[in-house]
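ok so for the tutorial part 2 we go from a plain amino acid sequence to predicted structure tokens. step 1 is just haveing the sequence, like this:
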Amino acid sequence: MNGNVHIGKLFGIKINLHYTWFLVFFLLAWALSSGYFPERLPGKEAYVYGILGALASLLLFASVLLHELSHSLVALKNKIKVSSITLFFFGGVAQVNEDNFTPNKELKVAIAGPIMSLFLGGLFFALSKFSGVYIGAVFGYLAFVNLILGGFNLVPGFPLDGGRVLRAILWKKWGDINRATYVAAEGGKMFAIFLIIIGVLGIFFGRIDLWYILLGLFLYSIAKNSYKQTVVSNILKESKVKEYMQTKYKALDASMPVSGFDFKKLMSYDQWVYPVLSGKKVIGVALQQQIEKAKAADGTRKILEVTIPIHKIKSVSPEDTCIKAYELMIMQRIELLPVIANGKVAGVIKAATLNELFSMAAVKADAENKAKRKIKQ
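step 2 — the prediction. this is what the tokens look like for a chain of 377 residues:
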């Protein structure tokens, strides 16, 4: 359970709702029906306000979906894989394979969202002028929110769309994505601090502006980590599996009873996942946790019975990148992958090894970050 609800597919892209969406939907519908619409349309029945609040909330959800879809469709047009979109009501995250990104492609993908929101804002504004009183009020609200979302996302600070646009422009100019990300992330941090200051000042003047403070803290956290993540990701993309795979590892015989498994004797191998052999052929992998569970239940069971067949495991080749190996481990919730070359197992690559590479990359990112700050000062 990852906190998401799958609601369908559009253009081959999985659409998910984060569980918080439902809470925000009802809160927004309640706020609109109890505050916004009674002020705009006084003297109406309570059920009318309820219907208008629910309708406005649903259409706002549709607006956010269109914003994210515009990013994704432009990505697909530029031959960039998009696996899913997860919506958080006021925003969303598209799972995009950034391996094929170039400055021009990132610029096109990033700018598509704000353009869609601004277009929707203009469309709803025009529709509000030619609609009845009730629908006109709904369209008026949607026009305002979409224009705000479009303008907000154009702020040139990472991770906002405007920050990605800035990064794309600087990336193309300098030919250095790390440097471009650093500048865009600094812009994002400055904007986040501005929001926090606005929120704090609002409290001093008798207004409750916690929304600005929370949003500022959220954006600051992402902007702060984005530079490091970019450096780490680039190092993993440049590193090949063959550089870090192990050709010596402990394997288990498929016919061995689980009672014969002694983890204490195997601790020196630093493995929690074991390739399983039938003769000299690797037929799958077995997880220590599953072996221990089977051992406690019935020690006469064979290792084969708790083996994940090799055809159900997505493996890597020596020429694949470490980022691909890492993503496959996360997707399959496994800490070791077989490395297949010419139809045979050439070795294994472990999550622990990639974590060490992560740490090295993170140290490098921190060092570069400090160096840039010293030069800036």
